[in-house]
């Protein structure tokens, strides 16, 4: 009998492994309960109390579908960014939007350029639509604009991915460097500018790019600075032609009622975002001190995490991650060498930092032992 | 200069029109405020109070990503249905899951069979991946199992879509008819059994199909009986091989924290579902009376809406929809002839039924005038 279902050849070629291990999965697998959840770059300072109230109120109305046009939220985002609602598409986190974007442009065999060790979910989508990833090494701890542009000139990719600030290294380029990249893109290359962490970056990190420029789409999220990773609201700013192309493929009713209400309230509370920014800065300083106290090298961070060079190889860093997990501390680390000499620790309130500070020396000793 | 971005040829061929007009869009376009929202088959009786409380509580924790494995929810659903968690995939509403399924199997040019006038979002996804839709007419007000099977034998589709109960007609087949269809599927055809409304259908509507049968995938939702359309939680029951194939393409962190918590609490409150079932039955009876009072013909319904034959053509029914909207009553109607002789009205509490009953005679008069 014919195999049912008859998957596409592309799907048959995709790996069956699941690269996305959540902290709950790690807890179940290890039997350890995490008392400090510092691995997913979640914002442990939480969302605006006004957003929490708005979500709780919206729960009463959740029998209604959310507005498929995301009218009010797009309007508020447009006002916030000084663009029109036609420049804004809202979707199920940056992850969901990246999936739609790749689907819009990538066919099997199409070239895509990114950095080796950059955001794996983007790579997941590219592979999932049959694109061919060309990965450029970082230059030190930074994505390498010149190398990315040179590779783009060589392989004429449909997409060129760059994150600013970068995950997993926490580094950033001044906005002028990114704007210069955009100006020098080869013809027909769309720059995917992932600004998930921009709300936590130093002044000047945001690139000045005309929202009508058809060569760039920039992605933002309510998951990081706004502290609502579990709400799943991201958005992109792009030229209206590209924004409307998303309507050809997106899940039109995909943004729920609570999600839209929470995002709208969070956006309106910029004081809370400023508060979070301060708390994150304090926590970054604390993580820097903790790293130094343990003879490790913290990297400068423009995000809500600090990447810490453990001074050895990937096996050692993996052992540190494992030993921290055994002590109830959930962190993660970069996937590829040479970055996998590092661990990556999310910011958090003092009590969480205390737990990390207490566990790290023991974890390091165990990893060395 | 080369056009940027370079869309795929398939995407270029897709229509730019947006077929998904939400009630908010209709309100904005018409300037009418809807005082009765009876067009989207939302459950106006609302979700379980326990689910509302769970969602409000989860709003506090929304800084955390939801578990990408949906472990607890899949476990509870498995227990509820007497299957294993490996038989369950959870996703962003049935809409989102249908998109993933189509992507898994449909390549440009692949045949897909459905009924003419059945769920348009399924068609949207099939067209969006380049599939060719073969549409069989309904037989009367029912999807036509024999015709669907004959067409499947002819065109060897990758997918055969059938909804039981049906939207937009509200009709249903006994579960035995659906199980018989499944047993007689041509080789290599996957039956997409959309059971969005099953929680509101009469006993015996649910088909007995082995969850390990690789020829069938059945879709369920928290949007209808459970009253949480704006939460975006659907799931599918299928053989483990097919369930795990979703992991190759799905948005792994797509199910948010509030969504998982709300669905879990709703599932645990089966008393509330029974309450809703009673309320819906009462409202169906009321809509039947209202239709008769106005000289119209209500169709029997196995859902939370009643489709009402207005006894004329599509132009007349469209006028009725328009005239009701002008009076603050939002309803919808089937898209295609001959079903577009009908209007479709969602069930609701007595106060909403009163509003509909008051507005309908005037709307009919205006439509006739």
Summarize the structure.
Two copies of one chain form a homodimer. By secondary structure, chain A is α/β, with parallel strands linked by helices. In chain A, about 40% of the residues lie in helices and about 15% in strands.
Which homologous superfamily in CATH is the superfamily of the largest domain in chain A? Answer: Type I PLP-dependent aspartate aminotransferase-like (Major domain)
Strand order of the largest sheet of chain A: 2-8-7-6-5-3-4
CATH topology of the largest domain in chain A: Aspartate Aminotransferase, domain 2
Overall average residue pLDDT of chain A:
96
How many structural domains of chain A? Answer: 2
Largest interface: A-B, 88 and 88 residues
E-strand count of chain A: 12
Distance between the termini of chain A: 56 Å
Overall body shape of chain A = globular
Oligomeric form: homodimer
Q: List the secondary-structure elements of chain A in sequence, H or E.
A: HHEHHEHEHEHEHEEEHHHEEHEEH
Name the helicity range of chain A.
40-55%
Low-confidence stretches of chain A: none
CATH class of the largest domain in chain A: Alpha Beta
The helix-and-strand class of chain A reads: alpha/beta
CATH architecture of the largest domain in chain A: 3-Layer(aba) Sandwich
Give Rg of chain A in angstroms: 21 Å
Tell me the number of helical segments of chain A per DSSP (H or I, 4 or more residues long). Answer: 13
Largest sheet of chain A: 7 strands, mixed
Percent of residues in beta strands of chain A:
5-15%
């Amino acid at each position: 009998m014919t195999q049912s279902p008859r998957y596409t050849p592309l799907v048959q070629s995709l790996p069956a492994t699941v690269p996305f291990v959540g902290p709950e999965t790690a807890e179940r697998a290890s039997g350890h309960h995490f008392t400090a959840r510092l691995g997913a770059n979640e914002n442990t300072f939480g969302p605006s109390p006004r957003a929490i109230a708005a979500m709780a109120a919206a729960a009463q109305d959740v029998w209604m579908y959310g507005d498929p046009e995301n009218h009010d939220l797009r309007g508020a985002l447009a006002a916030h960014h000084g663009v029109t609602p036609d420049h804004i598409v809202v979707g199920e986190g940056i992850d969901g939007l990246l999936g739609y974007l790749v689907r819009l442009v990538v066919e099997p065999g199409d070239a895509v350029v990114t950095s080796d060790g950059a955001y794996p979910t983007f790579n997941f989508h590219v592979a999932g639509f049959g694109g061919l990833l060309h990965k450029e090494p970082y230059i030190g701890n930074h994505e390498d604009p010149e190398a990315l542009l040179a590779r783009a000139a060589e392989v004429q990719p449909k997409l060129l991915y760059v994150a600013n600030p970068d995950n997993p290294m926490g580094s950033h380029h001044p906005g002028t460097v990114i704007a210069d990249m955009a100006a020098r893109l080869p013809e027909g290359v769309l720059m995917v500018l992932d600004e998930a962490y921009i709300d936590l970056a130093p002044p000047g990190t945001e690139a000045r790019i005309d929202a009508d420029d058809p060569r760039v789409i920039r992605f933002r999220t309510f998951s990081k600075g706004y502290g609502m990773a579990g709400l799943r609201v991201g958005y992109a700013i792009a030229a209206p032609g590209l924004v409307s192309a998303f309507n050809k493929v997106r899940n039109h009713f995909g943004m729920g009622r609570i999600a839209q209400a929470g995002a709208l309230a969070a956006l309106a509370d910029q004081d809370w975002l400023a508060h979070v920014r301060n708390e994150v800065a304090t926590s970054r300083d604390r993580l820097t001190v903790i790293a130094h106290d343990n003879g490790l090298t913290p990297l400068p961070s423009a995000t809500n995490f600090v990447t810490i060079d453990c001074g050895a190889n990937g096996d050692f860093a993996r052992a540190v991650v494992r030993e921290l997990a055994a002590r109830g501390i959930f962190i993660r680390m970069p996937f590829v060498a040479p970055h996998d000499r590092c661990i990556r620790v999310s910011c958090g309130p003092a009590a969480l930092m205390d737990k990390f500070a207490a566990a790290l020396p023991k974890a390091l000793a165990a990893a060395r032992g």
